[in-house]
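quick q for whoever's on today - can somebody do inverse folding on this one?? i tried earlier but teh output was garbage lol. tokens:
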């Protein structure tokens, strides 16, 4: 049941500290402060490239992981939505590996993409919530997320749990490829371990966020901007808002603004800027200034230091706890879910069963 919550979506958002913690336990070796993966016949050291394919929010988890695999494991990643990938007739490297991500394990396009990659001789790794599923049966290696049943149509805890498994996989890949030293590994390990507590802090301090969401609920269009691994998150923030509030929203790479979408900016378009304090922070805040100069209403999401440095141009600043940039995508997903949720509450839409959507898309 929904317990004390009005909607499954909010219940599932609130479960994330526990779900992330549980999912991490499988992959972390607390005695050695290192990553341990279940034994699996995939040799990351031998891979020249990894292919990732999925749909919707699961695809966006894979898109975040592309940044991680490339930067931390030095492993090039090709990623595409399954509905395109399956028909592109793309050549895959012989002895390559394809990673599919799916909450339900039943998404028709993701299953077809899996079959295509398998027919090309690829080893198939699947990150799944529902293990007894079509994708679960056809994959060579299954890595479970321990999210428990997800009832709300808009995916929340499955997304952050997928990211948690992907983060562990990236560290394992970095080790296998001998591109990470022990100090760095322990640093990233500690960042992961700190996550459940930091997510709980965000959930416990959402008063200001609820007010911002009420403002967003009145908009006709909302833009979400981010750079690096915050770019796929911008796409996820826009997707979540569209799904449950029916407000038009677009996610954009912050640097692409000036190539078109900046024409949309006026005082009526809220612009949510995701600016974790990472090596791209200055670049993102220069895009913030461009929006500010055109009279845009900016909602800046950053940490205390980021807000101190760039918050003056913002209409609202939502402060998150400081985290290692590696795990920022997992933490920054949470305020995006909450913004969509509270905007939908303000609009009075059917949050757990948005119109035209199904929890599992078994037709193409
Ligand atoms: C978004 C959402 C969908 C799913 C997509 C893939 O909130 O729920 O975009 O992520 O339909 O579904 P799975 O993960 O079951 O393959």
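ok took a stab at it. sequence:
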């Amino acid at each position: 049941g929904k317990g004390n919550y009005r909607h499954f979506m909010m219940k599932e958002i609130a479960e994330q500290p526990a779900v992330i913690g549980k999912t991490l336990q499988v992959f972390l070796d607390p005695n050695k402060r290192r990553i341990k993966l279940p034994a699996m016949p995939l040799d990351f050291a031998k891979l020249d490239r990894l292919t990732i394919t999925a749909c919707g929010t699961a695809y966006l988890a894979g898109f975040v992981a592309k940044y991680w695999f490339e930067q931390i494991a030095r492993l090039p990643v090709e990623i595409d939505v399954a509905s395109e990938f399956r028909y592109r007739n793309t050549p895959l490297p012989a002895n390559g590996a394809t990673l599919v991500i799916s909450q339900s394990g039943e998404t028709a396009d993701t299953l077809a993409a899996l079959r295509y990659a398998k027919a090309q001789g690829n080893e198939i790794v699947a990150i799944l919530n529902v293990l007894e599923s079509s994708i679960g049966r056809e994959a060579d290696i299954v890595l479970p997320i321990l999210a428990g049943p997800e009832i709300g149509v808009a995916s929340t805890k499955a997304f952050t749990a997928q990211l948690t498994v992907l983060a562990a996989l990236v560290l394992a890949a970095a080790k296998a490829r001998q591109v990470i030293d022990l100090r760095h590994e322990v640093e990233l390990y500690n960042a992961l371990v700190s996550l459940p507590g930091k997510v709980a802090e965000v959930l416990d301090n959402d008063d200001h966020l609820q007010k911002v969401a009420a403002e967003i609920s009145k908009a006709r269009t909302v833009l979400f901007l981010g750079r690096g691994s915050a770019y796929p998150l911008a796409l996820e923030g826009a997707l979540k808002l569209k799904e449950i509030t029916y407000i038009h929203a677009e996610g954009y790479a912050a640097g692409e603004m000036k190539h078109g979408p900046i024409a949309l900016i006026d005082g009526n378009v809220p612009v949510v800027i995701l600016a974790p304090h990472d090596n791209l922070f200055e670049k993102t805040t220069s895009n913030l200034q461009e929006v500010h100069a055109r009279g845009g209403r900016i909602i800046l999401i950053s940490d205390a230091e980021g807000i101190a440095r760039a918050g003056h141009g913002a209409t609202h600043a939502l402060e998150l706890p400081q985290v290692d940039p590696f795990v920022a995508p997992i933490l920054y997903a949470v305020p995006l879910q909450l913004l969509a949720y509270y905007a939908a509450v303000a609009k009075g839409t059917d949050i757990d069963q948005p119109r035209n959507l199904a929890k599992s898309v078994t037709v193409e």
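fwiw The first helix runs from residue 8 to 14. also The pocket of fructose -6-phosphate is lined by residues 55-58, 102-104, 107, 110, 154-155, 239, 243, 360-361 (CB under 6 Å). so keep that in mind when u check it
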